[in-house]
Amino acid sequence: MKYTYIENIADFVDKEVEIRGWVYNKRSSGKIQFLMVRDGTGIIQGVATEKDTEPESFSLMDNLDQESSVIVRGRVREDKRAPIGYELSIGSLEVVGESKDYPITPKSHGVDFLLQNRHIWIRSSKQWAILRIRAEVVKAVEDYLWERGFMRFDAPIFTPSACEGTTTLFEVDYFGEPAYLSQSGQLYCEATASAFGRVYCFGPAFRAEKSKTRRHLTEFWQVEPEIAYAHLDDSIELASGMIEYLIERVLINRKRELEVLERNISLLEGIKSPFPRIRYKDAVKKVNELGESMNFGEDFGAPQETVIGKNYDSPVVVTHFPREIKAFYMRKEPGNEELTLSFDILAPEGYGEIVGGGEREFEAEKLKREIKERGLGEDAFKWYIDLRKYGSVPHAGFGLGIERTVAWLCGITHIRQTIPFPRTLGRAYP
RNA sequence: UCCUCGGUAGCUCAAAGGAAGAGCGCCUGACUGUUAAUCAGGAAGUUGCAGGUUCGAGUCCUGCCCGAGGAGCCA
């Protein structure tokens, strides 16, 4: 017998089906037993009675524990009392694997306990919903880029040096030489853009900073598109369109998951690009008007990002950051060498920076000067400077952080729940 | 690295220097429409670790370990 997934259950009303899954919860009233079964695509309530259910199966249910794996056969019924509108009258039941003392009960738990049990926590409905939305976001990002002619390439994880000078890197022993886990595919994107025109890389990035906040992980994922023959505005347009598309895809394809999370979707529904734009110097003024102090030349901290983001009901694009708070490869604004052709996109509701990007320096001499002034060591960047020797062109791109984006779309407070197995300061288990 | 809070039953928490408790989960029993079902009973403890003060420490003191929130840091 072929088995059925719960997400397709509406097609099987009044038909016999077989569902293979796990016991989510159980309620018993003696002569009638209610069994919540999940199969990875959804949850359905099975009802067992002495009338409908074969006696052996009925007594088996007495000893079922939470998360026992079971195969359940029965007839699908429409029922207004059920949360999903359908129920299963259980005819028979088979236990595949028992589950003794399942630690995560349907009551509240602490963060540490849940993270120690992340390998099974992801079975819980909210975690399940978040990770389904993450998967949709990842697929939507790729669909969006492929539709626009971008080619995916994969940047290396082992890298010879810092992409950015100041960041703390994870060092590994690479056959006796030091190598570092990549903190960005950015520089490789630029090489690849000159080979393929429009490209993106998508993968993990690593940071060894001792950041201990709700918006930091030591291992996180980002998508980084790069376009040859492009400028700041092209990059902003691409990023804004991508965010608009991600919202649309999640609202259409993951509506049920947003309901599980009790997300207020009216806050997402009205969001269309282009987003409001503000120059860095005006953003600084605005931050001070809104009651957070900040001086020109400082980067936004969490409180500053929050007040700016909360001031708009859509993402907001901040442009033209000062040179000293942006990476060495950012191109300067023509006529004003102190500002860069850079941008960040801040998510609303206080979720902070989800995109950072801009136009890259494509003139070899200016790039070399910047590398020298920052004391970065030209040797490690020889290949990168080479790109400016052989047919250099204006180019631009950005990076979008998957976890922060998913946290915003889901309306959850901590990004550690947006990745299946989070790596945070002091935690690399399970 | 700094600041603040915390660590007691499998889990979430109470016990204001004087007999270690409750709810959930688990075990036993009752119940034909439950929605974190309900009701009755039961088992379950090296109070993070080490030292100290005290007649007496889960509680006070010192050091350490672990966790959380935030700051700093952060393509």
In short:
By secondary structure, this protein is an alpha+beta fold. It is 29% helix and 27% strand.
Mean of all residue-level pLDDT scores: 92
Which strand order does the major sheet show?
Answer: 6-10-11-18-17-16-13-12
Q: What is the CATH topology descriptor of the largest domain? A: BirA Bifunctional Protein, domain 2
Number of helices: 13
Explain what you see.
- The model has no long low-confidence stretch (mean pLDDT 92).
- The chain has 430 residues and is α+β, with helices and mostly antiparallel strands.
- The protein has 13 helices and 18 strands.
- It folds into two domains: 6-97, Beta Barrel (OB fold (Dihydrolipoamide Acetyltransferase, E2P)); 118-418, BirA Bifunctional Protein, domain 2, CATH 3.30.930.
- The strands form four sheets. The protein has an eight-stranded mixed sheet.
- A hairpin with a 4-residue loop joins strand 16 and strand 17.
- The protein is elongated and about 85 Å long.
- It binds one RNA strand of 75 nucleotides through residues 25, 27-34, 36, 45, 47, 49-51, 65-66, 81-83, 100-113, 115, 162-164, 166-168, 183-187, 205, 207, 209-216, 222, 224, 299, 301-302, 326-327, 329, 356-357, 399, 426-427.
